[in-house]
């Protein structure tokens, strides 16, 4: 078995290789294609993969990382790999999982079709809607990304976890079982893509250090609003914890409300603290 990492996921790919005791294959990445100054991506495998079961790890965000994924999968196949398992830690475009308006692309399906073209199977982590995986042409399994947060939160100054909405209760529950800290939840109403409202609810947070646990931080609108609510109820410290740290648009300003921000390595950033490598490796082993 050999592990290849796209440039969005080199560190996680190395972690998965260590967990699996598999060889890591280096890749040369350039931002020009074949020496042409056109800002297109260029990838080159720097080791042999012929006859191997290859694990390709690459988050498909932002767009250029989709292109890298497709080129690496093609290069791995051309180099004679026997089997290709695609690990897409953050499945970009996964949130447009249905046609809301006539004529729209179902982006998750469109990207999935191409990701599946050269792969034998696919693993995602905390994908927005796991049902979308059923539409892909290869077996696809979603892996829980929350345990990485649970492990990290066990060792830090946190008294209690808060889910920002109903949907996130399952994330807080999983993290709570791992870090041993109790959880509660709020109810959120999304007004538009940048604005959310929190239904008033009294929480037992006075004087406590709180971690808000969610799958994604995108604009940070949810975290900013929930942090203000927690502070108004007397929380001493607020940490924002997510699996996928996208941090787009106003995120930097919104996250200033928090004392700390942590994310996993599904999207590598300055906030990456926990790794999903153990769960990824376990899911790969389970494929047989
Ligand atoms: C929503 O269902 C998700 O779990 C997140 O709460 C949401 O994507 C966060 O987005 P933002 O950071 O833009 O509020």
Approximate shape: globular
Small-molecule binders here are: ribose-5-phosphate
CATH topology of the largest domain: Rossmann fold
CATH architecture of the largest domain: 3-Layer(aba) Sandwich
Question: How do the strands and helices of this protein lay out in sequence?
Answer:
Layout: E1 2-5, H1 10-20, E2 23-25, E3 27-30, E4 42-45, E5 53-57, H2 63-78, E6 83-88, H3 107-115, E7 121-125, E8 140-143, H4 146-154, E9 160-163, H5 169-179, E10 182-185, E11 188-192, E12 195-198, E13 209-217, H6 221-232, E14 237-245, H7 251-255, E15 260-264, E16 272-274, H8 277-287
Parallel strand pairs: 1-2, 1-5, 5-6, 6-7, 7-8, 9-10, 9-13, 13-14, 14-15, 15-16
Antiparallel strand pairs: 3-4, 11-12
Bound molecules: ribose-5-phosphate.
């Amino acid at each position: 078995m050999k592990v290849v990492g796209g440039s969005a996921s080199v560190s996680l790919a190395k972690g998965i290789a260590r967990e699996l005791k598999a060889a890591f294959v280096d890749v040369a990445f350039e931002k020009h294609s074949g020496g042409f100054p056109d800002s297109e991506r260029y990838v080159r495998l720097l080791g042999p993969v012929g006859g191997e079961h290859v694990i390709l790890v690459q988050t498909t965000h932002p767009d250029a990382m989709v292109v890298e994924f497709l080129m690496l999968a093609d290069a791995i196949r051309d180099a004679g790999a026997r089997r290709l398992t695609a690990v897409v830690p953050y499945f970009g475009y996964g949130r447009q999982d249905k046609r809301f308006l006539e004529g729209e692309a179902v982006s998750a399906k469109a990207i999935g079709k191409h990701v599946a073209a050269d792969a034998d199977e696919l693993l995602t982590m905390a994908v927005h809607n796991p049902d979308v995986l059923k539409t892909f042409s290869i077996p696809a399994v979603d892996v829980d990304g929350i345990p990485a947060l649970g492990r990290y939160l066990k060792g830090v100054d946190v008294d209690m976890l808060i889910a920002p909405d109903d949907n996130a209760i399952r994330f807080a529950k999983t993290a709570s079982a791992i870090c041993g800290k109790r959880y509660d939840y709020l109810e959120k109403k999304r007004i538009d893509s940048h604005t959310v409202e929190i239904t008033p609810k009294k929480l037992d947070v006075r004087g406590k250090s709180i971690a808000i646990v969610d799958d994604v931080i995108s604009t940070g609108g949810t975290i900013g609003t929930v942090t203000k609510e927690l502070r108004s109820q007397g929380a001493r410290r607020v940490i924002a914890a997510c699996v996928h740290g996208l941090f787009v648009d106003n995120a930097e300003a919104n996250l200033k409300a928090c004392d700390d921000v942590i994310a996993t390595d599904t999207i590598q950033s300055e906030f990456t603290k926990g790794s999903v490598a153990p769960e990824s490796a376990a899911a790969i082993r389970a494929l047989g």
